Every structure is written in structure tokens, then in C-alpha cells.
Amino acid sequence: MYAVLAGGVGAARFLRGLTAIVAPEQVTAIVNVGDDLDRFGLRICPDLDSITYWLAEVVHPEQQWGRADERFTVAEELIRLGHEPWFTLGDRDLALHLHRTEQLRRGLPLSQVTAEVAQAFGVAVRLLPATDDRVETRITTVDGRDLHFQEYWVRERAAPEVAGVHLAGAPLARPAPGVVDALLSADAVLIAPSNPVVSIGTILAVPGIAEALRQTVAPVVGVSPIVGGRVVRGMADRLLPAVGAEVSAAGVAAHYGPGLLDGWVVDHRDADAVGQVAAAGIRCVATDTMMDDVEVAAALARTCLDLAAEVAGEAAGEQAGDAAGEAADEAAGEAADEGAVRAS
Amino acid sequence: MYAVLAGGVGAARFLRGLTAIVAPEQVTAIVNVGDDLDRFGLRICPDLDSITYWLAEVVHPEQQWGRADERFTVAEELIRLGHEPWFTLGDRDLALHLHRTEQLRRGLPLSQVTAEVAQAFGVAVRLLPATDDRVETRITTVDGRDLHFQEYWVRERAAPEVAGVHLAGAPLARPAPGVVDALLSADAVLIAPSNPVVSIGTILAVPGIAEALRQTVAPVVGVSPIVGGRVVRGMADRLLPAVGAEVSAAGVAAHYGPGLLDGWVVDHRDADAVGQVAAAGIRCVATDTMMDDVEVAAALARTCLDLAAEVAGEAAGEQAGDAAGEAADEAAGEAADEGAVRAS
């Protein structure tokens, strides 16, 4: 069983690769909900929807989010009625928001609605929101504003300089049912190449999830969202400095830290980071991370699973050694030590 | 100035005729909201919308409600997600519901939202909901169920036998701002050929509206919704008996009663009702009431205004007579007496 921490599009592409090499039923995606927003009273879950559409193969092929063969009749009418077009909703997309909102109103938790939607779309990967509770990623700007993430990202096109990021509601939030179990019982936990701050960071900000990652015996392997020193998509370059992290493959690994990460996969173009990451106690390999097609994504997923198996093998070796009363294998270095600590 | 009590399609056609002979700015339509319903959390106002679409000339020409050039992408997706198609929403229609619901959520009263929507659609008739408060037409059936009107009408196709009709919420409802003023200051009040029970009856059930109709000095003239002894559209034949009224042109006039009505316009096919209605103290004329085109509707509206002018003229004559200390003109009969009483 595999658990994947997931943002939106980058995670969706990664999951498509992973499910090309393992059965989708073996995969649980734990998905960011910090970007979720209410518009016209409807609950919109951009990351859950992007993943659902990708895995159902109904995603808009060029846009990479929203629906293929989408129509905008409702949006056109809304503009006529005086609404700003800044967050344009497609008709098909809107139907999902209407359905989700109706089910939530009937008292179903988001996790259950998400499971039903996945089933309706024929998605066999188990999709879990990080939490059923309402959390909201807020961006504070240096000019003193406190924006919903989508306002910052979609309406303001990530132009304002960011002073900080926080997940409103997080202190009272609990992981959705199944999240902690999936992390604790996984054979490997993977961190998709999603935004480390507003996708993965907001998952980890839900109390109990980072703790489960530190407790799990499973190896935790992440994929760098930085390629050639730059973000592949999104605005991580504007957000990483706001949380004190460097915009580089090694910088993101250091941000997650050896307490969380056992392995880190960087792009060939960032191969010089491998030594630096390993020195920080995290096993690191370089490969092709630009998932332009499913074959590259599948090969990347294979690299992640191989790295996870390596870490797990070493940890098992150490445990066996411990059981025999022998000293830990010093050659495994800090990374293995970290793994051993987590396995204990 | 003219005030019109209005249901949905029948009233819309009548208003189109009226605005062909008087300036639309002179017309206030007081519209039934008892059929309003929430679907997917969205407030749907069938009668207000039908009238808006008709007067904006964007109504579906065959269906006579909903939008011309409508699309159903959202509805198709909702069916995929497991929803019943019993109340199919068009995409364009849905946009209006989203807008209205958003404005109501922001705290605007329905009357203000309605005015803004009318303006966006270029409708110059002043549209007022009977009330800004939430009321709901409920149908109790002989098999003991209590249905929302739309459940009875759309989902169950008016099949269940009706035991009674009530307007839930009515005791606490107040007329929307402008409603009572429009009735008291009108030169004529017209009652559209809408369902006497679940369109007009639910307007009159809002405390203060029937009283204003009885108090106004304006003549009150209605159009029979019964043609040739049968309902033109809708299910008044199933509802009139439930409120103790006869399904006939004279029966509906008697249901409103001479305390409310000064004049009654019936179809040629019901000309035999004229004497019976007049005997009950209501002036009555027969004309063509089948508004298949705008010319017939305009001629019908003209007949209504002429009848109103006749009633007003007689009432004025009587008042003048009263002022001169003379006895009331007995030739005016009971109908004029009724008008005089109301004018006093």
C-alpha cells in the first residue's frame, strides 16, 4: 500500500505515473484542502478535483485542470448579471461543486463525498482530503493584506509580495478518517512534487499528519518540485522565501527536513543537489522529473519506490542488527539513522 | 399606475399584453413566491423568473418557461453524479439562481435582488415579490402527505388527490416594500389569469395584501383563468375544489368574492357566467382570453382597463352623489355599492 501527499496538477500527473506501475487500489492520496473556497455558496476543492479529473481522464488536456469538453454557459450568464469573471467556472465543473455542496449540506463529511465522487468518475485510487474540517490557506502580503489563497493566486496572479502563509482553522482540525492509518500502515509514503508551502505544507499543518509521518515505519520519499533551480508550475518561488526556505531542490528537502524525509528525488538538472541533500541525512537520487507524458511519470514513480525500498531495506537491516545487540551500521550514515529512529 | 397580482406563465403573457398598451414603467407586478424552492442550496423563484424571461423576450418559446437557447450541461453532469432529473435546471437559468442566492446571502432582500435582475434583463415593469419573507406553498394530500408545491406539481405531476393548501410562514410574513403602496395608489388593480389557489391565493395569504385590496380606491379587475369551463394550463381544477371553490369562470369570481373584486373578465366560451357573476355584485364582461399572441393579450388588457375605468367612473359618480347629499345611484347595483364601500 502506498500513501501519497498530494497537491493539485503536479500530484495528479505523479499519481497517473504511479498507478501505471502499481494497482490504483493500492494507492491512497492525501490531498490538500487549504485552497478550497466557497463561491456562490458552493464548495470548490481545486486539488481534489484536479486529481479526480486527471485520474478519470476527463481533464482539460491543455489547461491541465478543469474538464475536457468544458462549456461556460453559466459563467457567461453570470457576467451578464454583473459578476467578475476572475474565477471562471465551467458548467461541468460547476455540477460537481453543486453536488458536493448538496452532500455536505446533508451532513456527509468531505471524505465521504470525495469517495462517492471518485466512484462516480471511476477513479480507483483512494482519495482522502487531508481533513474533513474547514481549513483555509491565507496569504499575508507585505502591503498588509490577508488574502484567501485563491484570491492571491487566481485573482491577483501571485503578484503581491508574500509576508507569510498560515492555515486558518488548523489548530482545531483533525486528519480525515483513514489519513493517519494510511500513513502508518503504508509500505511507502510519497510526497508528490507539489508546492511545498501551500500544498504539502498545508497538509502537514493539520495536527497529527506530520506526527504520523515521523512515526510511520514506512520510508518517506519526496519528489522535488524544483527543476533546474526553478519551479515547474505554480508560485513556490514566491512562497518558499516567505517560510524561510531556499528555492532549490536541496532547499525544499532541507525545508521538509531529515526528520520527515528519508529519500528525495531531484531532477537531472539539479544533480548537484544530491550530495548536499545526502549530507543532510536524506538519501537522494537524480532522474527525469518532468512528467510530460505518463511514461516519464511512471519511471519517476518507479525511482521513488526503488528509493523507498532501499531505505526500508536498510532500516530493516539496522533493526535486525539492533535486535542482535549489534551497533548500528555506521556506513548507513545519518539518513539511515533517521530512518531507524523513525522505525523505533 | 397599474398593479397586477401575478403568478407565472399566464401572468407573464398578460403583462406582455398590458405593456403593449401602457408604458411598462407604469406597471407594478406583485408576484407569487409560494412556489419558490431551494434546490442545491439555490433559491429558485419560478414565477418571478417566468415573468422576467417573458418580458425580456428570452423565454423558451415552446416551453413558455425557462430560457430560449437553453443548455443542460450542468444537469447532465448532475445525473452522472446520481441526482434525479425531476427538476431539470438549464444552465442559463441556473446562473440566475446562483446570482440570486449569492445576493440573498449577502443580505439583500429578495425585492432588491429582483429589481436588479429585472434591470440586468432590461425589464422596465416593476417586479415585486409578494413578500421578502420566506413563505412556502404546501399541498396536503388525501393520502396524508405534506408536499412542497413543486414536489406535488413537478415531481408528482399533480397526480395525488389534494386535501388542502396552506402557505407555510404566512402568519409572520409582511408584504415586500412597495406592495401595499402599489395597491393603494394604483389607478387600477388587475388580477392576472393565474391559478386562483397557488398563485393568487398565496399572494392574498400574505397578511396585509388582501386588506390593501379591500381598502384601495382603485377598481380591482380580474381575468378568469377558466376557459370553456376548464383550466387553460396548470392544475387549478385539482386545487379549487380543495378550497371549496367551483371549477368555472363564475366559481373563481365567487371564490375571490365581491369584497375583493369589482370586475371580472371571462372568456367568450364562458359568457353564460356573466349574469351569474353580475348577480353576485361583480361587473362582468366576456371577451377572448386565450392569449395565443400579444395582440389578443393586449386586447384583453384593454378590456380590463376599460372595465376598471367603468367601475371607477361609477364609484366617482356615487361619491360625488354622496358628497351632494343625494342617495346612491340605485341603478349602479350591488357591484357599484361594493366599489363605493371600498372607496369610502
What proportion of the residues of chain A form beta strands (DSSP E)? Answer: 15-25%
Largest interface: A-B, 27 and 27 residues
**CATH architecture grouping of chain A:** 3-Layer(aba) Sandwich
- CATH fourth-tier homologous superfamily of chain A: CofD-like domains
The CATH topology of chain A is given as: Rossmann fold
| Backbone structural class of chain A | alpha/beta
Oligomer: homodimer
Strand arrangement within the widest β-sheet of chain A reads 5-2-1-9-10-13-14
C-alpha termini separation of chain A: 20 Å
Main sheet properties of chain A: 7 strands, parallel
Name the helicity range of chain A. 40-55%
Q: What is the arithmetic mean of pLDDT of chain A?
A: 90
What string, H for helix and E for strand, traces the elements of chain A in order? EHEEEHHHHEEEHEHEHHEEEHHEHEHH
What's the CATH class label of chain A? Alpha Beta
Sum up the overall morphology of chain A in one term. Answer: globular
Flag low-confidence runs of chain A. 325-344
| Count of distinct strands of chain A | 14
